[in-house]
Amino acid sequence: MAASVVVFLVALPLCVGVAVASGVPAELGLVTGIVGGLVVGVLPGSSLQVSGPAAGLTVLVYEAVRAYGLSALGVLVLGAGVVQIGLGVLRWGRWFRAVSAAVVQGMLAGIGLVLVAGQVYAMGDAAAPGGGGIEKFAGLGSLPGAVDPVALALGGATVGVLVVWPRWRRGARFVPAPLVAVGGAALVTGVFDLGVRRVEVRGLLEAVRAPTVDDLGLLTEAGVVGTVLALALIASAESLFSAAAVDQSHDGPRTDYDRELVAQGAGNVLCGALGALPMTAVIVRSAANVRAGARTKASRVLHGVWLLVFAALLPGVLGGIPVAALAGLLVYAGCRLVPVRELGVLWRSRDRGEVVVLGVTALAIVAWNLFEGVLVGLALAVAKTAWDISQVHVEIEDRGDTEVVVRVVGNATFLRLPKLLDALEGVPRERGVRLELSGLWHVDHACAAALDAWGAGLAVDRGVREGGEGDVGVVR
Known about the structure:
Elements: H1 2-21, H2 26-38, E1 50-52, H3 58-68, H4 73-89, H5 101-123, H6 133-138, H7 149-164, H8 169-174, H9 177-191, H10 204-207, H11 213-216, H12 222-247, H13 257-273, E2 280-282, H14 283-291, H15 298-313, H16 323-337, H17 340-348, H18 352-367, H19 370-389, E3 392-398, E4 403-412, H20 417-425, E5 432-436, E6 440-443, H21 445-457, E7 473-475
Parallel strand pairs: 4-5, 4-6, 5-7
Antiparallel strand pairs: 1-2, 3-4
Helix pairs in contact: 1-2, 1-9, 1-14, 1-15, 1-16, 2-13, 2-15, 3-12, 4-12, 4-13, 5-16, 5-18, 5-19, 7-9, 7-16, 12-13, 12-14, 17-18, 18-19, 20-21
């Protein structure tokens, strides 16, 4: 019971903040949180992680709503849920763990940067420029003259509370920092009747909108299909990586990744049918659940009950929350998505190629969009892996007047062909040459052709073949 209340208090401002930042009614964030508790909470998969609207999908949802309209949101989320269920049934859940950690961290960093760039405007009750991350960053120079100082002070104070409050461990154990920050800002706004923009309240039933047949027709558009796939893949990756992190923090049952993927998909199908935001498993709420002493699924289910009770009985409370405070909450969340500590670890580990993958992925998301940025990151990660495993060494043993033994060891691919040819060109040509290839684990066509041509040029390819012996020739 106590754990469910803690999770509810953490989830409430985040549900509302993610909805407002996504450009949809605040109530739709609550609907997703309720579904995450009451539906996903009882399904098999993970036992302690908590699902709901996530800051990591804010940028993608905002762009989708702007491009296709709020009426298309339900179709996008429903389609993403169907894809997730299909991936889970096909038992692809575990394969999400094989995605390069640098790509995932770069994805989160890119999302965080774009989220911060957009929400800084909302902290000052200023309108953000249209376009993607580049336009938002470019517009920051003209921001000082456009902000409302009172709203900016509220947003800044919200960030300050989020940073400082957790340091008081006793207080943070009972009252979560997001509630203190947003609740305090709402209280100050109400007491002093500050003229800042506040959350618009429409009512839960008025905000819910089921997709129509005409809306489903959008699934024939290539751009809509791409957005559906992006939502499904990113929500799945975030949920399963969250599950891995939560599993490390408790001694209870481990997550069944395929079942968890089906559970997340079922939740998103229902959210789509209600026209609500997409859901993922959220590490902030999940960590709060574990720290509060949860041992079973009951706490995450009950947190959905408390969200439903609040939305049904106290929806007017949302109207007292300043948008600047929610923006401050998301600026803080966006900064937390940028893996500064992990960057330092990667740099010191000398695997600096991972830092490049992370950085390029993040910058690509800022420059273009989330889907294209992730594709760029995956392509770069694959190229880096191909380069790393394509290690070939040429060992030259001079046996005096008899012969020179040349051993080629490793993986010979076209990526290392220049290095291989440079090494072979340095082999003495005055005596017999014995070329040993038994140490090669893999040879692609380009390197095989180059080795044959080099051997033919020295007239060494005569007689020594598979398993054979001889003084001069090629041993494969």
